[in-house]
Amino acid sequence: MSQLRTRFAPSPTGYLHIGGLRTALYSYLYAKKTDGKFILRIEDTDQGRYVDGAVELIYRTLHETGIEYDEGPDVGGDYGPYIQSQRKNEYLYYAKKLVESGHAYYCFCTEERLAALPDVNGARRYDKHCMSIPKEEAERRIAQGEKYVIRQNMPTVGSTTYHDVVYGDITIENSELEDQILIKSDGMPTYNFANVIDDHLMGINCVMRGIEYLSSTPKYNLLYDAFGWARPTYIHMPPIMKDAQHKLSKRNGDASYEDLIKKGFLKEAIINYIALLGWSPKDDSEKMSFDELKRKFDVSGINKSPSIFDPMKLAWLNSLYIKEMSAEAFAEYATPWIDGCYLKQFDKALVCKLIQSRIETFAEMEEKLRFLTEYGSFDSELYVNQKQKADAELAKQILPAIKTKLENVAEWNNQNLFGALVELSAELECKKGAVLWIARVALTGLAATPGGASEIAEIIGKAETLERIGLAIEQLG
Ligand code: GLU
Q: In this prediction, what percent of the chain has a pLDDT beyond 70?
């Protein structure tokens, strides 16, 4: 086969659904794996749905995630333009060719007539009414300015079969196919027409897209056949579900790349997770860098069955990527999260050190560290730790000594604070763990916190530390 050419053909809706991003990713990975080309085409023929900034969002997301296209609107290429609205004349030219060969016809039916067609299971199928209009008459009516569309003339008998790499042979009875519109009354092509013309003219020989197009593909194949063009290879991908019954949709709030970034996921984890939504490598590995994905991706690993979007698994993967970030990279990424909330008042490096290994998403930081600013009365049962032999009684005995010891720490840092508490435990002949436990509970009022007493004391500072211990002593009466 000649060089593989795959494409991602999103409509600029202002929203990059993760199903779309998966199509882009798989098409990219497959092309790269075979030294082929990956092309971006913007499908904007539905002018009514135009959204400002939507095209830029697509470019930005693909560049940001490393899904680089070899050809596309902003990078150029030999098969442009890569934006459908700029190819309008091509479509009319090819639709007229189909009219010439009898595979399509002009239709002048009014909306009223179409609305009066019999309703069969909720759909009004076009009845080929205008097919009988002689070509000359149709051309005269068009010249006189009458509104028209061009419809595909579907065969009424026989069946159409094609092979899908994932789903096998797909056969549709031709009688089930409606004479779909190819060119709309505004002169724009429908998606159903434009995708075929563009895929052919752009040399796309492998079409990868969501399963929702599986059953329309016979219609597209009839167009390829009518032009005498080679059909591409088809790879349809399984649906992405929210749960067993519902597709993942915009309404779930988790369905787009942007949503996930806003929730504190890293692009590396998102791409890794999206790769696993409908595909698995032969060795069943789960955490894979972009380079590993490039090496391991294989279309034979694409599954037929729907994949369920599991936010917990994404969070788990995200935590692995967070843990392996350098301290600098973590701090840089965490900065907007820190600067956007109360955490801003603390030493950023200390906050990062405390939290990096203890979060799954960046958004969790705000909640998990709230005790750094919020402190109040708490149940003295929290001092109980059987393993360390600590309880409220022991806390009452040793908290004043802890306070004095910390008051005398000259240079306020984790190491010195930790050293002072350990020293105190020896002086008091008490378990080190008990002193550290009691100090941490007194400082936070919580059973569990990220970090120990000395790390927390370092962040909140000397005055706050001593004040909190004072309040804890008062509470114990
Ligand atoms: N514009 C279509 C969409 O956004 C593309 C479908 C295809 O890949 O052919 O769903």
A: 98
